[in-house]
Amino acid sequence: MFLFLLVALYSFDKAKQCIGTMTIEIDFLQKKNIDSNPYDTDKMAAEFIQQFNNQAFSVGQQLVFSFNDKLFGLLVKDIEAMDPSILKGEPASGKRQKIEVGLVVGNSQVAFEKAENSSLNLIGKAKTKENRQSIINPDWNFEKMGIGGLDKEFSDIFRRAFASRVFPPEIVEQMGEFLTQGW
After folding, report:
1. Residue 60: what are its φ and ψ, rounded to 5°?
2. pLDDT tens digit string along 64-109?
3. What is the dihedral of CA 124, 26, 133, 170, to 10 degrees?
4. By mean pLDDT, which of 1-5, 8-12, 143-147 is the weakest?
5. Is residue 26 classed as helix, strand or coil in its secondary structure?
6. What CA–CA distance (Å, rounded) separates 163 from 157?
7. CA 145, 86, 131, 109: dihedral to nearest 10 degrees?
């Protein structure tokens, strides 16, 4: 008896499925090779993005990650999409869009959290999910930084200039947004 599987090509909607933030549970892959050395999550996150750029991930997915000649077991816990409204200067919804499947891009943020009962020693800013506010967020207020006198029009121009560095060029093009030049 033969079993036939039908495989279909999956196309990502890059305006809705680029990963903004991904939370990953981490532990040593082999328990016999554990150590107490600190692992810098900022460097781990940069290495992760480099190794897995343009790779698809789903919540619950398990994978192996090599960092500093050590193997780690990873489990994708949570994925949030990038907010496409930053390109248009629209008000932020304030609600983060959770997605089940997404595509890692160069500006995705990865947050590592230690697995329960793990002896892994994590250091750095990417070790837990922090509430970071980006300057390209439509709710960003320059006056809170002590930069007064910047009106809404300037803020929109500034945000759009840097949004092109957050989203891949093909998404910016699809959304009909033009790059703001001259910075």
Report:
1. 95, -10
2. 999 999 999 999 999 999 877 765 666 555 567 899 999 999 889 9
3. 120
4. 143-147
5. strand
6. 10
7. -120
Q: Which residues pair with 130 in a beta bridge?
A: none
Are β-strands 38-40 and 101-103 bridged in parallel, bridged antiparallel, or unpaired? unpaired
- Rounded average pLDDT over 14-24: 90
- pTM given for the model: 0.67
Q: Can you give the three-state secondary structure of 137-177, one letter per residue? A: CCCCCHHHHCCCCCCHHHHHHHHHHHHCCCCCHHHHHHCCC
Nearest partner of 67 among 88, 87, 42, 94, judged by Cα: 42
Instruction: Please tell me whether residue 42 adopts helix, strand or coil conformation.
Output: helix
